[in-house]
C-alpha cells in the first residue's frame, strides 16, 4: 500500500533541453556555443533521452510510478518561424503513447525555459510579439496532440525571470561581495544559474550576442526580466490556455511557479510579505481560472529586514548550495492553498546530491508533508520528483546530480537505476 490514495499521481519530471540532446535550433544551444558563454559546458547529446525515452519510461513503470512530466521542445517543432516539423510532432506523440502503454499519465509542459533562436532574434520575452508566436506554436501542437493528453502545463516557472532580476540587482549593488555572499545568492534561485558568470559575460559578450541574437542583450526566458516582461509572460499563458480550452475544453491546464518557503525572521515580516507578493501573490489574477497550479520548491528563504539570511552555520547544503530542508514543500503548499483554490500538483521537488540515501530521506520527509496537507483537505493531486535522470543542469552543466537514474555519458549513456527510484515507486497508490 502506497503513501497516497488511488487517483494520486506519483512521478518524475524532465525538461527537453536538459535530457534530449542536440536541440540545435534553441537559444540555449546558441548560448552554449559562445566564446563568452554563461554555460560551463555545452549540452551536446545531453543524456540522449530523445532516442532512449522508451528505456527511461520503462524504468519508471517498473518502479511503480504512474505519471511522467516532460516538455515539448518548441525549437524542434518550429525551428524557423512558421515552419512546423511533422516528424518532431510524431516523436512526441510516440513519447505520449509509450507512457500510456506503460501505465504512466503524461503531463506535458509546452515551454520549459528554452525557446527557438528566431524568437529571441525577434525580441524574445520582453517583446509583446512573443505572445502571438507562442500562441501559434501552442495551437499547432494542440491540434496535433490534444486528443492524446489530459494535463498541460503551459509555461514552466513563469516567475523565473523576476527571481533572476532580483538576484542580479542585488549582485550589482554588492560588486565587492565576498565568495560566501555569492554562495548565499546562489541559494535564492531554483535554477542551475551562475549569476557571477552572467554578470561578467554581459560585459564581454555584447559583440558576440549582436552577431548571434541581433542584440547585445538577448531576452531569453531566463534573462533578467522587467515588470513588463513579466506581464507579457502572463498574457502568453492566458492566450495559450484560451487556445487549449477552445480546442479541448476537457484538458486540465495550468502553469508552474518557482516558490520558496519564505520564512520571516524577527523584524523581517514586511519584507517577507513583499517577497511572497512578488514571487506568488501578484500572479493570482492571471491564474485564478486555471484548473491547477504546479508548485515547484527545493528549499526555504529566511528573510530579515535587511534581506536574505544565510543558511544556518552548520546546515547541510546540497550540491546547488541550497539548504537541505525538505519541510519547505509542505509549508509552501499550505501558503499557496490559502490563496489559490484550484488543484495543486508538486511538479518539481528534489535534491542534487551524490548520496542517494539523503535523496531518499528528502523524498520521505517531503512527501510526508504532502500527505499531511491532503489529510487537511488541501487538494494536492500529484508529486513529481525532479529529476528522473542526472542531466544537464543549465549553467552548471553536468555537475549537479538530481536524478533517480545515473547516466554514464562517457560509456554509451549507460543507465544505472538508483535505490531512490524504487523508493519513490513504493509511495504510489496501488493500481
From TrEMBL:
Single GO BP term: carbohydrate catabolic process
Keyword Nucleotide-binding appears in the UniProt entry: no
Nuclease in keyword set: no
Region listing for Disordered, in residue ranges: 173-197
GO molecular function term, any single one: beta-glucosidase activity
Pfam families associated with the record: Glyco_hydro_1
PANTHER family, per database record: GLYCOSYL HYDROLASE, LP05116P
Family indicated by similarity: Belongs to the glycosyl hydrolase 1 family.
Listed name of the protein: Beta-glucosidase
